[in-house]
Amino acid sequence: MRATLMFTAGDVRVVEVPEPTLQRPTDAIIRVTYACVCGSDLHPYHSLEETPGGRRMGHEAIGVVEQVGSSVEHVRVGDTVIVPFAWSDNTCTFCRDGVTTSCLHGGFFDGAPSATQAEKLLVPQADGTAVVIPEGTEESLMPSLLTLSDVYLTGYHAARTGGVATGHTVVVIGDGAVGLSAVLASRLMGAATIILMGRHEDRTALGREFGATHIVAERGAEGIAQVIEITGGEGAHVVLEAVGHLPAYEQAYGVVRPGGTISRVGVPQYEEAPVGFRSLFGKNATLTGGPATVRAYIEAALPQVLDGTIDPGRVFDRELPLDEIAEAYRLMDSREALKVLIRP
Amino acid sequence: MRATLMFTAGDVRVVEVPEPTLQRPTDAIIRVTYACVCGSDLHPYHSLEETPGGRRMGHEAIGVVEQVGSSVEHVRVGDTVIVPFAWSDNTCTFCRDGVTTSCLHGGFFDGAPSATQAEKLLVPQADGTAVVIPEGTEESLMPSLLTLSDVYLTGYHAARTGGVATGHTVVVIGDGAVGLSAVLASRLMGAATIILMGRHEDRTALGREFGATHIVAERGAEGIAQVIEITGGEGAHVVLEAVGHLPAYEQAYGVVRPGGTISRVGVPQYEEAPVGFRSLFGKNATLTGGPATVRAYIEAALPQVLDGTIDPGRVFDRELPLDEIAEAYRLMDSREALKVLIRP
Known about the structure:
alpha/beta, Quinone Oxidoreductase, Chain A, domain 1, Rossmann fold, 2 domains, seven-stranded mixed sheet, 11 helices, 19 strands, 26% helix, 26% strand, globular, oxidoreductase (chains A, B), ADH-like_N (chains A, B)
């Protein structure tokens, strides 16, 4: 079968690989019908070292179940399922807490032996991981349903762990697909003011449609000053950081209100950062977030997509066949595309 | 009058200074009847640079009101009041949110022109800052009431912002007076397991009386391993960091459970610290805390002291007159005393 491998920064290729086979009784194998490229795929696209065997890419998928292991009970051959970017048993102590990305038997598809930008995918812990899409669901809803495997629910995770609530002033840093999703989730949670910090006009335009009330294109000290002015000198109750680079984090603590919360979902490309008296501590700011616990949210979000309450699939502005995925990476890296849907 | 000044690290003296006078219509002046030395006073005691004019010390006090400004309405001459370590108007937007340490008209006594380790104290924003102790309150309760100006409610702030709840496993890092207060507050909030990390046996003994179920004397990797073992490999729901040095913070993210919370109240003696995938982000850990918003908690805690629900004044193991305050600093710095009560 064909699968996407990255061999070094900037070198993405579709190559022929062996089909996955069931490894454990809890596995399933799906034929991938929808996949996509994630903003976080651009991190290795910029920095991956020479990897002779290639790194398997992709962690978002919808597919049709083709085989199940002997102990799989809830997922059946023929089901169309959403597969989140991390697998989890959905029964361990951390899953029961809702922290499915820390599952004791879990893992992440990205870089795993089987990843989603491919014709077929091995899904470990299939009963815990895969969520069945009701039979007869319109094909036009699939892009929005695909966003429940990562991007929309990552934006949602930011807003939820940040504690966005009715009447809040929220700042979203980053106008990528996760940032725009965080805007949509914040509107859903009742935020009164949503300030989107981003400078790509086509993206911030969608941000306005998703619920942003203000756009701030400036960055750094000037961007912070503008947010402080918009908020009457007070800062934001919640800041959702959807970038992952240190300057975005610095903006976050610059605009957060005393007693407010910064929630990060952009995978941090740094380990150390300011957290002392001058940044977080002095104003009793809270720092939260992490890998989105997507699996814990899918059941609640799925009906919202089916009934049209949310349409997060609008973040896809291009569609390409799997064979042209290298072009999808290029388009997203150059900001010519917001997010590219892939049809294997 | 006599007041405590620090002139350089280790050099604390009681010297004669002018009595404070009312500066603004919102001020009051109190005669200090109880003060004390704080663990955070030991930071400048170790590191203060040569300060020829001296730095005024102390930020915890009970006193009797001697004068009030023309616009002071609620506090009256003759009242005995608790003065928190920060003053606040208690009416601004941040005070209404409960973040009294970020009051728009607020400030900190420590290092201010008038501080509490003295015979008299200028209290700015007296109506917002001072809380009246009911007339006729027994003198024996005054040490516990004095802890509401900082130490007990700082421990309480850690537990509250950390979200300690019934059944939780809580780790408290630091067996100083704030750490012990955090143990007491955690017990009050229903924590099932309270692991106190500290190695001074006289202090951890009081920690056990306050509610600690386990004591871990080891630090660093070994201390982390012990906590992980006690928690069945899972880590703690909430970690209360009451030290302020980087190794304590490193212990905190080492023992926090996925999805758990670290709450810091030890004033960080560092600005940068690990917050990336390997420390906080990967396990969706939350970092919260800051200067305790003591003023917001006093009304609720005062009756608990009066009716004997809590007895946080047990952290005072020595009492000295103001003139001997240099000895109080020495005793606390050498760990010969846990916390010293000062009678001006």
